[in-house]
């Protein structure tokens, strides 16, 4: 599903690479944590998988597509098979929960009729039934992240990437979001989550890949934070 | 259908959100395109006038006041036997004066100030090929009793040079204003892209196609460009009617008439140039500000 082969990423003007000769494979349906201190290079992995940055060396394969050599005009279509959630939610403040999710469908060419059918369903799934018409500022942080998860999942992606999704949330709310991601994982969606929330990693008992100074120092099937 | 509606709505909202900039963009665009239109019209006009006048061009061989009969005969002979000549007429001093009086009949004081004998007699020569004026002039110049050989073309060329000057001036102003217009388009698109940065970020994230992200911005510039070109065209048309058809009608005897058809032709031209130039500018700006 996801294959990194000897990937090195050095940002311009950086003294050392963010990722240094990293090789890792992730199977379909896996739930994987990338952990490590700030600046260890774990967020760079998300950017590589999204084709936001290109590796300096090595090969990145996602959904059997070589992202490294992908032509830039093919990137938008490629991204439709990947859902994404961030620490800062990235919701549109002037749109309701429903409209935020529907927007993601409409801009990739889905009709309003499709949105009317699918959006309430996915909002129900993430536990926001009855709050469809609230604006982001009328929702709690946890609820906003649920909207973001709904937006990422509404298109039924093969992969869900989560970059510190609980970074702005209190522990109880974080657990709820993790339950949600776990539920999504059980539908067969591969989940890749970058975090440094040890509490969560320890509770989930999933595959843990630890990165330090751009190198993989641990890859454990049912790991804990450290 | 839905996407079209979405895009059009985005365009209108975009233009309105930044309305002062939009107006500035439209005004500079219309001035630039007006100047472009004026320049093209002038070019077409000069071309038309050249066709009209060059066909009628004559070479005047003016004779000295003290020319003898023998000399006049010799010149007459030389002209008639010259292979370049298609035909000739002879004009006496009296005939020249009559024509002069007729030409300036509305200015009797000017006519009075010129004596009946002060205009030279002349041969008016029509050449087979008006371009060969120089050859003819060189061949005839040697004859005794010739005051001057004047080709009307040299006079016309002076007039045309003035028109050409206006034309280049208009083109220069058009180019100058175009720079301002393009900078404004670029700036407007930047502001628009910034004010919609959140939407753009989400669109990129969920995989909206590039054209779908860019289309509203490009169309925004195109709509402003077309509005600018229509205003420029209206100014051009009104200017033509007011100036040439009314205020400066006196010039109409020199100018061949400017056809309204030619002026109408400027509408698609200006709209096309305005739309294409705006679109390209917007698109290039977006390539810098909306990296995928």
By secondary-structure content and strand pairing, the structural class of chain B works out as: alpha+beta
Main sheet makeup of chain B: 4 strands, antiparallel
Gyration radius over CA of chain A: 17 Å
- Biggest pleated-sheet summary of chain A: 6 strands, mixed
- Count the E strands of chain A: 10
CATH topology of the largest domain in chain A: Rossmann fold
Helix count from the secondary structure assignment of chain A: 7
Please, how many domains of chain B?
Answer: 2
Major β-sheet strand ordering of chain B: 2-3-1-4
Residue-averaged pLDDT of chain B: 84
Oligomer: heterodimer
CATH architecture of the largest domain in chain A: 3-Layer(aba) Sandwich
**Radius of gyration of chain B, in angstroms, nearest whole number:** 30 Å
Percent range for helical residues of chain A? 25-40%
Q: Give the overall pLDDT of chain A as a whole number.
A: 92
Q: Catalogue the unreliable spans of chain B.
A: none
Structural class of chain A: alpha/beta
Q: Can you offer a commentary on this structure?
A:
The complex is a heterodimer of chains A (about 230) and B (about 290). Chain A is an alpha/beta fold and about 230 residues long. Chain A has 2 domains: about 1-80 and about 160-225, P-loop containing nucleotide triphosphate hydrolases (Rossmann fold), CATH 3.40.50.300; about 90-155, no CATH class. Helix content of chain A is about 30%, strand content about 25%. Chain A has 7 helices and 10 strands. Chain A has helices at about 40-50, 75-80, 95-105, 110-125, 140-155, 170-185, 200-205; strands spanning about 1-10, 20-25, 30-35, 55-60, 65, 80-85, 160-165, 190-195, 205-210, 215-220. Chain A is globular. With about 290 residues, chain B is an alpha+beta fold. Chain B has 2 domains: about 1-55 and about 155-290, no CATH class; about 65-145, Alpha-Beta Plaits. Chain B has 10 helices and 4 strands. Chain B has helices spanning about 1-15, 20-55, 70-80, 95-105, 110, 135-140, 150-195, 195-205, 210-245, 260-290; strands at about 60-65, 85-90, 120-125, 145-150. Chain B has a 4-stranded antiparallel β-sheet. In chain B, helix 2 packs antiparallel against helix 7, helix 2 (about 20-55) packs across helix 10 (about 260-290) and helix 9 (about 210-245) runs antiparallel to helix 10 (about 260-290). The radius of gyration of chain B is 30 Å and the shape is elongated. Chain B starts with a helix and ends with a helix. The relative contact order of chain B is 0.17. The chains are: A alpha/beta (about 230), B alpha+beta (about 290).
């Amino acid at each position: 599903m996801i294959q990194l082969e000897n990937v090195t990423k050095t940002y311009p003007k950086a003294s050392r690479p963010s990722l240094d000769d990293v090789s890792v494979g992730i199977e379909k349906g896996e739930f994987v944590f990338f952990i490590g201190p700030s600046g260890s290079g774990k967020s760079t992995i998300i950017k590589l998988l999204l084709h936001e940055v290109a590796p300096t060396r090595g090969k990145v394969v996602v959904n059997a597509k070589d992202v490294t050599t992908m032509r830039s005009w093919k990137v938008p279509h490629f991204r439709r098979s990947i859902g994404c959630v961030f620490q800062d939610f990235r919701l549109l403040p002037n749109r309701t929960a429903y409209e935020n999710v529907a927007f993601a469908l409409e801009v990739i060419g889905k009709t309003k009729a499709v949105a009317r059918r699918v959006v309430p369903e996915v909002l129900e799934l993430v536990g926001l039934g009855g709050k469809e018409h609230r604006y982001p500022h009328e929702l709690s942080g946890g609820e906003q992240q649920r909207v973001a998860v709904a937006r990422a999942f509404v298109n039924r992606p093969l992969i869900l990437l989560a970059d510190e999704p609980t970074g702005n949330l209190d522990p109880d709310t974080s657990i709820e979001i993790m339950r949600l991601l776990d539920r999504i994982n059980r539908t067969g969606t591969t989940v890749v989550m970058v975090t440094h929330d040890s509490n969560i990693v320890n509770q989930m008992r999933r595959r843990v890949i630890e990165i330090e100074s751009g190198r993989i120092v641990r890859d454990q099937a049912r790991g804990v934070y450290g | 259908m839905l996407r079209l509606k979405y895009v059009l709505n985005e365009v209108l909202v975009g233009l309105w959100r930044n309305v002062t900039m939009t107006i500035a963009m439209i005004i500079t665009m219309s001035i630039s395109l007006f100047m472009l239109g004026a320049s093209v019209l002038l070019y077409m006009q000069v071309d038309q006038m050249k066709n009209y006048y060059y066909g009628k061009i004559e070479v005047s061989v003016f004779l000295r006041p003290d020319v003898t009969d023998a000399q006049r005969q010799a010149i007459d002979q030389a002209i008639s036997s010259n292979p370049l000549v298609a035909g000739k007429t002879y004009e006496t001093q009296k005939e020249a004066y009559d024509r002069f009086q007729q030409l300036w009949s509305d200015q009797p004081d000017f006519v009075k100030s010129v004596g009946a004998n002060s205009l030279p007699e002349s041969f008016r020569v029509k050449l087979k090929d008006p371009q060969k004026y120089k050859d003819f002039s060189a061949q005839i110049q040697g004859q005794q009793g010739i005051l001057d050989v004047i080709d009307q073309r040299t006079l016309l060329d002076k007039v045309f040079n003035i028109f050409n000057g206006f034309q280049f001036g208009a083109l220069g102003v058009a180019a100058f204003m175009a720079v301002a217009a393009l900078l404004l388009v670029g700036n407007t698109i930047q502001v628009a892209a910034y004010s919609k940065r959140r939407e753009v970020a989400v669109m990129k994230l969920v995989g909206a196609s590039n054209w779908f992200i860019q289309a509203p911005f490009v169309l925004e510039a195109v709509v402003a460009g077309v509005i600018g070109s229509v205003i420029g065209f209206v100014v051009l048309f009104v200017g033509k009617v007011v100036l040439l058809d009314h205020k400066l009608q006196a010039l109409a005897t020199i100018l061949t008439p400017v056809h309204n058809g030619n002026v109408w032709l400027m509408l698609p031209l200006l709209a096309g140039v305005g739309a294409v130039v705006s679109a390209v500018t917007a698109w290039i700006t977006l390539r810098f500000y909306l990296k995928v």
